[in-house]
Amino acid sequence: MAQPTMMDVMQCQMNEMAAAALLQMEAAVDAELDKVDNMTEDDLSKIRARRIEEMKKRQSEKEDWKSQGHGSMTKVTDQKEFFEACKNSEKVVCIFTRESNRWGQIMKEHLTNLAQRHLEARFIWVDAENAPFLTDKLNIFMMPTIVCVKGNKVHKQHNGLDDIDGTGKYSAGMLEYLLHAYDEMLDESPLYEQEKRDEEEELAELDLDD
Question: Which domains does the chain have, with CATH numbers?
Fold first, then answer.
């Protein structure tokens, strides 16, 4: 019997956490409804003003991130560029691979997709053949390797594909879920959630056909 991957374990844990969270949410919603019933016009005005400020702050953050290279996958050519990227951005997701590595090319495509969706992290990649100092310093011995840098320090590292799916049959959503739920590099995982909904709908259609 195949050993469960980290993704399998994480999914079970998340299911248990989601069930507990639902109960807490129900209680919280009831409490909020009670508050709404007793709100004044002044209370509502303050809430609107606070939300507008939050939206302005979020937009300002996005502009800052874009100016630092967030929003796309960037090739880093030397160690100086790597360290500068890690210094300038709070969260950096870096893939070490080779041009000839098939699995690395697939991962690069997935991460390029995620880079466009998640401005909160910067996505870069390094050609390991041209970066012996970095590969040695970070103890990179399998390709592809994902290195997650948070606060200018290595936060998590995934050597090879075993933490995702050793067969290489994984989606961009599954990678997004790993970076969100386990690595805490992404704020959310909407692509993964959409893939799960699509999968459930397909299974439901198959049941109806039977």
Answer: 65-170 (3.40.30.10)
